[in-house]
Structure of PA2169 family four-helix-bundle protein:
Amino acid sequence: MHGLEQLTLNFVRNLLLLSHGILPECQHWLGISYVPYHPNFLSIMATITGETARAYNDLVEINKTAAKGYQEAAEGVSSPDLKSKLSELSQQRAQFASDLSRQASQYGINPENESTIEGVVADAAAAVHRGWINIKSAITGQDDSAILGECETGDATALQTYETALRSSELPVEARNIIQKQHGEILSAKNWVTQQKGTH
């Protein structure tokens, strides 16, 4: 179900419950769940499009893959300092995915259930996997510089996907803000990785 359809369904469902005098705090007695919706429902209804849903889906998938890639990198490098930092970046990307999923749910978008939209998520996942595809061979070679190079490539792919999302004119303001913030932090991480690659 697309974001706008789900959001509208939640809104109408809540109205029906309230119109029958069933208050949210009492509904659990009846086994009925009150579905929270975004407080600015009326103002964002017109802006939630398939394009917005795809942006969330792509970015959640990319961050999940990056979290796994950075964890593998942390386990593969020999430097204790690198292990610590790469593990931290893995946790950062997992948090990014969680934050995006939580915000998407406010718009009635469930990234876990939107993976078939025009094949875009599959394309994004394939792209980011290409970015991390050589991480295992780099680890096998026990070359910290090569491992960092794969992290750099993975982040370059992620940044491209973020920039594609940010070029959309249909993103709600709140969505744009969180995506822009995450883009900046990924760019900072990529620059750090590039710098470290030159010293290992």
